[in-house]
Structures are given as C-alpha cells and as structure tokens.
Amino acid sequence: MSSSLQLFDRGKTWIGATIAAANYGTSNHMEGQEVKFQDEDPSDRTKTLTGMKVHCICVRNDSAVTLYAGEQVTWTTAYVGRRIGAKATDLVPTEGVAGIVDDFLPSGGVLDGDLFWLVRKGPTRAKNQATVVSFTAGGYFGPDVDEGGRAMTIDSAQTDDTGAVTQAITGRVLTSNNVLNALFRVYINIRF
C-alpha cells in the first residue's frame, strides 16, 4: 500500500516491454513521482517485513541495457531525478548512487525505456556479486567495479591522500549474506 497515488505496484514495471525514445512522451509525466510503500512483500501483502516505509521514485531505464532487481544505478546526467543512465561502479563516486532497482522485480528485470520503482530510502535488498563476497549485518556496502550494479563490502568511507571520497557508500547491511548472486536486506538513505 502506498501513501499517495500509486502508478503501479512494486515488483512490476509500467509496460513490461522496451519503449522507444520516440514514445517517451506518452509517459514522461510519470518520471520523478515519489511514493512511500509499506515494507512488505508485494506478492503477499499480509507478509509485512518491518514497520518502516520504503521511499521510491518512478524512473525510466535510459541505460540501453536491462536492469535487474537489487542493482545499484546512477542518473542520466541531463535527467537527474527522472532517468537511470547506468549501473553503478566504484569508479564513479562523484556521480553517486541514485538508488537501488526495485528488489521485487521478476527475473526479466526492467527493459530499456520502461518505467520502474527506484528505492531511495528505507529497507530493500541489494544484489550480491557472482564471486565470493561476504556481507556482515551492520557493515557498509557500495557498488562494485567489476560487476556493475552489484554490491561489495566497504570497511568505511574510502578517501585518497587529499581526503576526497574515492568509494561511494550506498548503505548498511541488515542481514548477513555470503550467497552468490543473491538479494540480501539492506537499509539505504540516498540524499541527492
């Protein structure tokens, strides 16, 4: 259940198909709309996960690739707050992580041009890497360089000799995980 007008449910995309850029005009008024959802499994609304709200924004996949549940992503430069341009990597901390792709999307993900929910604040799930990575509850995580959009563990904010941040921190780990390619519970609060 959302706290305002809901365009479509979590776990779904707007159309479920690729939308050509020439056809964005029929739905671009939806880009950037914010909704707060209960932290529950949308396939079974009786299964409340916590009492917290999940803050989402309706965005368009403008990356030219399919995005998958739990991946960390970055904005399209000219469309901050409205369109996603790429999967996040730790090589671009200045861009910052825009949020996490709706963790309840089915295995087909969100196709290029389609609209979906981007989680910006609250409990959600991030995607683990395909290589051995172990996450500990209470630890930090951020985007991985080798597996764009997937999570890597971070001891603390990493900086260079001048104090500039060289690794973006996306959030905190809620449940420990060492299962490859699995979604695991995290808490995020993306501020821009």
Oligomer: single chain
The poorly predicted ranges are none
Helical residue percent?
Answer: under 10%
Shape: globular
Walk across the major sheet and give the strand order. 2-4-3-5-6
Number of structural units classed as domains: 1
What's a quick, concise take on this entry?
With 192 residues, the protein is mainly β. It contains no helices and ten strands.
List the helices and strands and how they pair.
Blueprint: E1 34-41, E2 44-61, E3 72-75, E4 83-87, E5 99-101, E6 115-127, E7 140-143, E8 151-154, E9 171-173, E10 183-189
Parallel strand pairs: 2-4
Antiparallel strand pairs: 1-2, 2-6, 3-4, 3-5, 5-6, 6-10, 7-8, 7-9, 9-10
How would you sum up this structure, described in words?
- The chain has one domain.
- Helices cover 0% and strands 36% of the residues.
- The chain contains no helices and ten strands.
- β7 and β8 form a beta hairpin.
- The mean pLDDT is 84.
Q: What are the defining features of this structure?
A:
single chain, 192 residues, mainly beta, 5-stranded mixed β-barrel, 0% helix, globular
